[in-house]
Amino acid sequence: MGIVTPLTSGRRSPAAHHLRQKCGLGSPSLVTYRFVVTIGYRSDKGTPVPAPVTSPRPRPSDPRPSDPRPSDPRPSDDVDLRRVAVNGIDVNVALQGEGPAVLLLHGFPHTWRLWTRVMGPLAVRHRVIAPDMRGAGASTRAAGGYDAGTLACDAEALLDALGVRSAAVVGIDAGTPPAFLLAMRRPDLVRRLVVMESLLGGLPGAEEFLAQGPPWWFGFHAVPGLAETVLTGHEAQYVDWFLGTGSLGEGVDPAVRDAFVRAYTGTDALRCAFSYYRALPTSSEQIAAAVAGGRLTVPAMAVGARPVGRVLERQLRPVADNLVGHLIEDCGHIIPLHRPEALLRLLEPFLDPGPGAEGSPAGG
Fold this sequence. Notes:
Layout: E1 2-4, H1 14-22, E2 29-31, E3 80-86, E4 89-96, E5 101-105, H2 116-123, E6 127-131, H3 148-161, E7 167-172, H4 176-185, E8 190-196, H5 216-222, H6 226-231, H7 235-246, H8 254-263, H9 267-278, H10 280-292, E9 300-304, H11 311-316, E10 323-327, H12 335-338, H13 340-351
Parallel strand pairs: 5-6, 5-7, 7-8, 8-9, 9-10
Antiparallel strand pairs: 1-2, 3-4, 4-6
Helix pairs in contact: 1-3, 2-13, 3-4, 4-10, 5-9, 7-8
């Protein structure tokens, strides 16, 4: 259980009032918090695929990050890092560029730096907004609020705090369910939706993918307190496994890798990360309720790679009015770091509000 506190005091816009009503922020209240994350790395036979670590394992003498909420080292001069108070927490957010807003929501085990290789090109024509999700990176390690519905409220409140009235929303992995729910709740706010490498709760279309059960770490992460106890002191090796597997063994930039390791080092950091998995049932219920109550009317694009492929597209097809789907070949789960050029070739025309940017019922 955790406490939802009101937004910061002071003058509030009508949008902020709507947000407080939608997210139940009329007064502090106790609620159950959960979040959904659906990722997987499996071979064609459904077995885990091992991967090399992305950098040498730290020696016993190597310094280890120990700050319970690490500060985010300054990025390049054209990226502005801010802390924004929203929905009862402080969100660390990277901002770059001017123009129509694009909100980027990362997954596990990532921070806003997952988008490092696509932010600059997108910022040429857009205002790029890349937060650390609740509990990740330099954002507040909250006691609760890790369900997809609350994360959607976080995203909505962030856009409101930044004065954004219309945004394209891009989510990958754990960022997909809140991105989807935000688009379902606020089609007036979300002008376009891009979702990648995730599943949406129990929506039909993922039966074959899940035929042999979810990936092994789902159960490991779901047991309260277990994974934190086992992994504390071994965070770097664990993060390296996901980064290596998610890039088909090619690894990621050492500076980005180190930022991820810092973000997920320590028992409380791990507790926040695994809260995503422990909230899967609640998030699935939220997604089912949203679909039962309406359709996805926002122009949407589903992008797959390995291992999810076109599964997310198949889940969305029956509930979306305007959907296009793409599969990036020879690409691992962490698309923005592994194949940023291929991703940009899809994102840039889709995010452009000009003619030909929308999807179609037939897909692609």
